[in-house]
């Protein structure tokens, strides 16, 4: 409908496509796209943003977030023959030249599908700030809340299922930035326990009685909506509409993991993370575009070499099975699976046999979605202290995700407070990691 209207208006000469997009964003989102009539000063604020764009290699994203600061030394960038390595040993993988930690043996068999980025570097060394930057590309500010990637995807492209939310978060991390300055409709649906599905979602009243109640509620709210035509009021009403659509959706069964074979569920792992990975696969199958699954417990200041193998066992089952499952179903090519954390951990081992916060150098991994298989990008020195090849800022990492989705990296959107923002700040996509 929107596309047909835009085409008619452009052909009639009444409005340009860019103006149509700006007006649509302004009216529906409560934000504005940067228009051509603005001054050069407005453009200069983001003149460093990448103008690169490609036909999307990924349709969906499954974003696996390792909350707490995952040790790169004991997962994706293990060393050998140096004191900083500790007891962790690297092992060979299914990809020549790619070695990862011995704690990830199942994932090692899937590395021919993925790219390891061993040169991430952040400016944020505290959990909340690092988490925020990794999700938004921006430093935390007290005056504004920036959107996470799933919200940007919602705004730019929308979803593939009209009755399910396009953005879902699975886990218990309350620090997620959500929709940021976008309306609440762009926020993720939070699912704390994947095995419980969505509680109290079904309508227990007869349909006729339910419709009568909704009609009455609409009439009672009408005067208020007319008197206060603000975006938050509209967003609240839209949430009711979306909730009703979801209540009636045939695709709600995506949240019912009991439909899956017991053997496959066991392969993903019994923990909430593994079952969350399974839920993510079921959701992208039904058109949900962005699913994040969180795995905490990586804050290993103490007993790092006890905690990390335990965390890796959970990650290894969920991640390796997810990659294999997506591949077997023909979904991996269109689904970008991302594994990342807010920062790494120190190469030096502290007096408590732990590793401390280390944003200077750490790792992230991407599978499927158009990235090269069996590839390593970037490099740290022999002790894992310094990035010595292809340093990747957080904004560059996020720009690469947006690039895979075919999103415009230089498109400026104004927040309700009239401040300009782009999806990944001035991040430059890592074009070399794509096949």
From TrEMBL:
SUPFAM superfamilies associated with the record: Alkaline phosphatase-like
Listed InterPro entries: Alkaline_phosphatase_core_sf, DUF1501
Superkingdom of origin organism: Bacteria
One Pfam family here: DUF1501
Protein's UniProt name: DUF1501 domain-containing protein
UniProt source species: Prosthecobacter fluviatilis
